[in-house]
Design brief:
The structure is a homodimer. By secondary structure, chain A is of the alpha/beta class. Chain A has an eight-stranded mixed beta sheet, sandwiched between helices. In chain A, helix 3 links the parallel strand 7 and strand 8. The first copy, chain A, is elongated and about 70 Å long. The model of chain A has no long low-confidence stretch (mean pLDDT about 95). Chains A and B meet through helix 4, helix 5, helix 6, helix 7 and helix 8 of A and helix 4, helix 5, helix 6, helix 7 and helix 8 of B.
């Protein structure tokens, strides 16, 4: 049995609590939050606390706190033999207080508080300073059914930027499409299956191979007509820049 | 039984042929292609032809030909009592030869020749000059299991631009993420569940509500660090522009 103390009650903390609780060989000993009210509903499932000094000894302490709080919280922890890990995509492993054995357990996924998470669809990027600690984190990932990958702090930073492109920026493409469709009384539902299919395609085919459309075809007539239709200057600018980006990817001169 | 002559053997034509063939109350009478070789393998299922003048009378003639060919092909068709429809996202209904009853049957989806298409996931945008013709096209959509929407030529143009955003531009976001991950020996598989989840979220929640990340949070520190990490000038430019777009959407000053 791997014992864990969990710190933080945001989306990541809450979903990790559920995943750890469901795993047969992981046990959450204490759950810490500055704001006990936010996790009050779990009081019958786990021991809650809001005082770092009252944390007992466990195999792992998981800091699911905001990026800015990682260093401070790790400094304030009591001295422990446990492995202290953070869950952030951008914080350096060395930002954890050096009194501790240190590691990273970064889930690459977007979480909503209300939606149940299938952890088989949550890749975990693992880093540790010691080989045994790396193996321990790999066991935890495996216990909650997640695939895991060995990722250095430097790689993790790049992964975090890449995640902004596939998550925040793709979502903004959907948003702009929503603005366009709403502006012309077109039901946004019409575009939903296309959104699904576009994401599905790159699960088996590279984004390079999956590309289609006027930019890739270098179809100047359609591009010109689209630019004329777009009413928002920022939409025009985005259309032009991303069309250039696709042309560059597919070997066309800008 | 609704009888159809199908013209064109590209992705759309081929998938429509299969959908029509599977529908119990639609029958494909003839399949026309300039290049008979490309549909030779279907010769036992349907009568093939490469001569427009040999087309028999049917209820509907579906022109699944390239945008540029719609007007010409519709002019070269023999005079018919059938309803002549094109399948393009951008061609005006009036570009069809005015000798004919005219309509549009535009599937909003991305097709690959090899991949089987589930037509319940292919919204059909329907337009016709006559009410009865509109009803006829609605019946065909329903026969192949597709949801259908009444969309005017003008709306269809906007829908086509919006489709470029959710399909081509989202895919380019995946491509850039792939470039970043490849450049740092990071397995692109790590990002695939996030791509799926991002597309899944907006099936039930608006893209506005689904947005997260540094741009929405106005997290200047992370944005600055990301821009420093990005090595490609075009990636930097895209990051900056889309960050501005998200800030604008979420009411932050640029």
């Amino acid at each position: 049995m791997i014992t864990v103390n969990l710190l933080g009650s945001g989306n990541v903390g809450t979903h990790l609590f559920k995943a750890f609780s469901n795993a047969s060989n992981v046990s959450v000993n204490q759950w810490y939050s500055r704001n006990l009210k936010s996790i009050q509903s779990f009081q019958n499932e786990v021991s809650l606390c809001d005082d770092l000094s009252s944390l007992d000894e466990t195999d792992i302490l998981v800091l699911a706190v905001s990026d800015d709080a990682v260093a401070t919280v790790s400094e304030q922890l009591p001295t422990t033999n446990g492995l202290v890990v953070h869950t952030s995509g951008s914080v350096n492993i060395h930002d954890l207080d050096k009194r501790h054995r240190r590691g990273v357990f970064y889930p690459v996924q977007t979480f909503s508080k209300e939606v149940t998470v299938d952890f088989s669809q949550v890749p975990l990027c693992i880093e540790a300073l010691e080989k045994d600690d790396y193996q321990l984190l790999k066991s935890v990932a495996s216990a909650i059914g997640s695939p895991s990958y060995k990722i250095s702090t430097e790689q993790r930073q790049y992964l975090h930027v890449a995640a902004v492109f596939v998550n925040n920026f793709s979502n903004q493409m959907y948003r702009i499409a929503h603005e366009i469709s709403d502006g012309h009384h077109i039901n946004f539902d019409i575009l939903k299956p296309l959104i699904t299919e576009t994401a599905k395609k790159v699960q088996t085919v590279s984004p390079y191979m999956a590309q289609t459309g006027p930019a890739k075809r270098h179809d100047k007539k359609t591009i010109k007509r689209h630019l004329k239709l777009l009413e928002d200057d920022l939409h025009k600018e985005i259309y032009t820049l991303l069309t250039d980006s696709i042309k560059k990817t597919h070997g066309k001169k800008l």
